[in-house]
Amino acid sequence: MGNLRRRSASVLPSAGIALLVWGCSGGSTPSGGPTQTGPISVGMIAPFTGPAAEFGGLIGAPCYAATGLINKAGGVMGRHLNCVPIDDTGDPADAVPNVTRAIATTPNFDMAEGLETNTAATTVPLVNNAKIPFVTADGLTSFSHTTDK
Fold it and tell me: What is the CATH number of the domain that holds 65?
């Protein structure tokens, strides 16, 4: 557990920086333009309940910090960003329906972050197949060399 904490703690600042860079670059969807008007939803896929709930706060903090700075500067092409917590409970059996539901029902779900080690093997394919850009905080060796966009 200690090694997982160190790994997550070292990756999380990168997630916030990536979100900030994406926002400042004009953050568009893969098709080249915003999907709709209104706020851009940034899905924070992490355990917010259950035995690994502490990681939800660690994974969520960079999202709130980066979106606060981006929104203060006027947003992305005039659109504000919202952090949307998506509870994967740290369990793949809960993560799949929760993330699937969020992808289907969250308006303007244009970016995701988190996708931590306990559930990445099941959540990364869902987010990747939905063509949602993401930053992962997982430490799985299977993602050291990946073809996921």
Answer: 3.40.50.2300
Kindly state whether residue 11 falls inside one of the protein's structural domains: yes
Q: pLDDT tens across 34-76, in order?
A: 447 889 999 999 999 999 999 999 989 999 999 999 999 999 9
Whether 129 is covered by a domain: the verdict is: yes
pTM of the model: 0.75
Q: How many domains does the chain have?
A: 1
Q: CA-CA distance, 95 to 78, in Å (whole number)?
A: 32
What's the CA gap between 122 and 117, in Å, rounded? 10
Q: How far apart are CA 72 and CA 35, in angstroms?
A: 22
Q: Are 50 and 91 in contact (CB under 8 A)?
A: yes
pLDDT in tens, 5-44: 444 444 445 455 455 445 544 444 444 454 478 899 999 9
Q: What span, in angstroms and rounded, lies between the C-alpha atoms of 145 and 72?
A: 36
Q: What is the largest CA-CA distance in the chain?
A: 42
Domain that holds residue 124: 2-27+37-141
The H-assigned helical ranges of 25-53 are: none
Classify residue 107: in a domain, yes or no.
yes
